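F.,

This is the one I mentioned.
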């Protein structure tokens, strides 16, 4: 009798874990589809030279401000659903093959070997799991 109760409880616990995992990653396909749009929005913002902003072109300033607001709301919405964008070069993180994809290595005087110094495309995580690894450049001085 005790054995069947234990088996039943184990089955209940396993089912709970599987249901939670299904909930956590149900939006994975949708999230992957959104990454290209987020990347394009990010590229659009990055390609406006800072000196062109606030230089008297009110239309460009308004367009840029609107894109920044759109990106902010989009990233907040994605975060609320467990999706986060990450950039390992911002913090000069150590290269981690489980989370990063190295696309090239280059010498960087004054920086430690194995440190990420450049990000070609930012990465995304969904509920802590890497959805897309960032493509990065890694320091190799030797």
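My design for it:
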């Amino acid at each position: 009798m005790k054995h069947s109760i234990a088996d039943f409880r184990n089955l209940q616990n396993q089912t709970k874990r599987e249901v939670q995992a299904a909930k956590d990653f149900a939006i994975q396909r949708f999230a992957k589809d959104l990454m290209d749009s987020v990347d394009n929005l990010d590229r659009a913002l990055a390609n406006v030279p800072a000196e062109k902003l606030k230089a008297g072109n009110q239309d460009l300033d308004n367009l840029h401000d609107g894109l920044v607001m759109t990106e902010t709301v989009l990233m907040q919405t994605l975060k609320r659903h467990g999706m986060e964008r990450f950039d390992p070069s911002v913090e000069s993180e150590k290269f981690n093959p489980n989370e990063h994809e190295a696309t090239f290595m280059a010498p960087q005087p004054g920086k430690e070997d194995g440190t990420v110094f450049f990000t070609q495309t930012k990465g995304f995580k969904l509920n802590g799991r890497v959805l897309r690894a960032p493509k990065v450049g890694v320091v190799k001085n030797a």
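The chain has one domain: 2-139.

Talk soon.
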